[in-house]
Design brief:
By secondary structure, the protein is α+β, with helices and mostly antiparallel strands. The chain contains 3 helices and 5 strands; from the N terminus they run H-E-E-E-H-E-E-H.
Length: about 130
């Protein structure tokens, strides 16, 4: 069971922003920018392109809903999208609020993000769904 599956199951706490029967979205605990959100399928699949076509399409639509809510909740120019997927063997999409392209630099993360600020951001995103 991956760490993401444990988060989905509620075994590990998360800053949840959205959930449906197939997907779960939550704030990254090592964000590259405030509001950095992960979208994961509830089905444990290592590689995003191993997800069947219909579910992958549904995942993108779910991510779009989350990104739209993020844009309303967090002042930014756009929501950046990337798929890296090497650290955790569970497919996931990164959604990152951007003012500039450098905001998507995964080498620079926010150190020790304030839990209260994270809770507020998650609540603000969820309120805009």
């Amino acid at each position: 069971m991956t760490i993401f599956s444990k988060i989905i199951a509620g075994e590990i706490p998360s800053y949840k922003v959205a959930e449906d029967d197939k997907f779960y979205a939550f704030l990254d605990i090592n964000p590259v920018n405030w509001g950095h959100t992960l979208v994961v399928p509830k089905q444990e699949v290592d590689y995003i392109f191993d997800i069947d076509d219909d579910q992958l399409a549904d995942m993108i639509v779910f991510a779009k809903k989350v990104a739209t809510a993020m844009k309303k909740a967090i002042p930014c120019r756009k929501i950046g999208v990337t798929v890296l997927g090497l650290e955790v063997p569970h497919a996931h999409i990164h959604l990152v609020p951007l003012q500039k392209e450098g905001d998507m630099d995964f080498k620079h993360k926010i150190d020790n993000p304030d839990p209260e600020k994270m809770k507020k951001i998650a609540a603000d995103i969820a309120a805009n769904l």
